[in-house]
């Protein structure tokens, strides 16, 4: 009887862990989706809270830190109008989450709309009760690119 209780307890613990992991993945996916909308809306107040103070941003035209990214979004020098997400993968390791989004980005840059295919890598860290973005990197890819899961 004790053996069955032990097996049942281990099953419950494993189920609880799997459920918590799935919830965390969904939370991160939703945060990533929200971030794209905040960027389209130029909502720098929400983005300022999301971006860690030491965050790095890698784009086709350069690499910069949080203040410059927020300035770019606020002024509209790059207006992230729409990110059509084709595929998403999330991996969690402790208090770190990595998100890969394969997207078609429509952005207003240097006076005109442009459309590019990217795989965007986002790295988040759980800090207290909040997730903070540490890294945001655009990698130019072909539209046939797939994210291996």
TrEMBL record:
Residues 28-133 form the DUF4440 domain. Keywords: Signal. It comes from the Bacteria. The keyword Signal applies. Residues 1-20 form the signal peptide. The keyword rRNA processing does not apply. InterPro entries: DUF4440 (IPR027843), NTF2-like_dom_sf (IPR032710). It holds the Pfam family DUF4440. This is DUF4440 domain-containing protein.
